[in-house]
Specification:
Helices cover about 35% and strands about 25% of the residues. It is α/β, with parallel strands linked by helices.
Length: about 110
Amino acid sequence: MNVISNDQIKCAIALSGLYNVYDPEIGLNVVDLGLIYQIDFDETEKRIDASMTLTTQFCPMGESINSNVTQSLMNSFPEWEIHVNLTFDPPWNHSRISPEGQEFLNG
């Protein structure tokens, strides 16, 4: 789990909320799954640009997960404009899962 950000403090705040957003099919949160690639903050525009992926391009819960990520960021930063970009470059793979996520999945 290595999320790129231009503001590590704000990123930590964003991630703390995103730990409550789950992939309902897997039962693991989007942070530990490694679905969040980048979160950047534009102080001047009060805008957050987040890039994320899904475990597969054909994920039936993709729209719901994306919506929940957006809502979580809105809850953490209520005065900010939120833009969540869904990308499959690079494609997700199991190596992105955090050690905590690995433990959950193997337990």
